[in-house]
From TrEMBL:
GO molecular function: uroporphyrin-III C-methyltransferase activity
Domain of life: Bacteria
Protein's GO biological process: methylation; siroheme biosynthetic process
Top enzyme class: transferase
InterPro entries: 4pyrrol_Mease, 4pyrrol_Methylase_sf, 4pyrrole_Mease_sub1, 4pyrrole_Mease_sub2, CobA/CysG_C, Siro_Cobalamin_biosynth, Uropor_MeTrfase_CS
EC number: 2.1.1.107
Protein name per the record: uroporphyrinogen-III C-methyltransferase
């Protein structure tokens, strides 16, 4: 495979949407690491692991553009304008995102916005927390005879719409829910009203793959109380389904409680 070049043609700049993975720098792809080392400017999300910053060249300009639910966030319009400004200055810009740019990361929106303005842009995939959680806990998200697939969903949207919980309850899939920590009690009620059994196993995992990773194993009807008791907070993913029963108890980040 020929080496990837981040050099923009004819002195023009370029934007790379880089998936930085769930936090552990060793989970970066080789391509992502190379692009990050060669970029002139980084626009960095809050969820990017601190160890990843070590890849920046000494002269790299690093701009924090955090976007966190429930916290003061950098406006998306401002981030877009920054990307365009630096690219038009002939810079190589890395828009560094936790996880993968195309899984709840606005990667599609940003690529379309840049393309509409004639700015060269390309994406580098990353490992999203909802998939990394499997190896982090010894939790097979799919398992013969137990889970026929996995669905990644978000409990928080711009238009306040909700996932098709009823369809997911009947699907037999392991469900990994992002952004569900804001109101876990409401999420539990919605799941049960949609047909999920209250006893359905749940794992709530904070900071997947990071040194501060912690998790709690529960069930839908008691997960809100267990989250409160454990003190877990965002960022976290909530894994729902029978596959949770296969968590390796010896995996890093041992669970702090188990519902009966």
């Amino acid at each position: 495979m020929p080496p990837v070049s981040t050099c923009a043609p004819h002195g023009t700049g370029k934007v790379w949407l880089v998936g930085a993975g769930p936090g552990d720098p060793e989970l970066l792809t080789v391509k992502a690491a190379r692009v990050l080392r060669e970029a002139d400017v980084w626009l960095v999300d809050d969820l990017v692991g601190p160890g990843i910053h070590a890849l920046a060249a000494p002269a790299t300009r690093i701009v924090k553009v955090g976007k966190r639910g429930g916290c003061r966030s950098t406006p998306q319009d401002f981030i877009l304008r920054l990307m365009a400004r630096y690219a038009r200055q002939g810079r190589i810009v890395a828009r560094v995102k936790g996880g993968d740019p195309f899984i709840f990361g606005r990667g599609g929106e940003e690529l379309a916005w840049l393309a509409a303005r004639g700015i060269a842009a390309e994406a580098v995939g990353g490992l999203t927390a909802g998939l990394a959680v499997g190896a982090a806990l010894g939790l097979p998200l799919t398992h013969r005879g137990l889970s026929r697939g996995v669905a990644l969903v978000t409990a928080h949207t711009m238009d306040a719409s909700r996932p098709d919980w009823r369809g997911l309850a009947a699907s037999g899939l392991t469900v990994v829910c992002y952004m569900g920590m804001r109101d876990a009690a409401m999420l539990a009620r919605e799941l049960q009203e949609a047909g999920f059994a209250g006893r359905t196993p749940v794992a709530v995992v904070h900071r997947v793959s990071c040194p501060e990773q912690r998790h709690v194993v529960s069930r839908i009807d008691s997960m809100a109380a267990d989250i409160d008791l454990s003190g877990l907070s965002s960022p976290a993913v909530i894994v729902i389904g029978e596959a949770v029963t296969l968590i390796d108890a010896a995996a890093p980040g041992a669970s702090m409680s188990r519902a009966a």
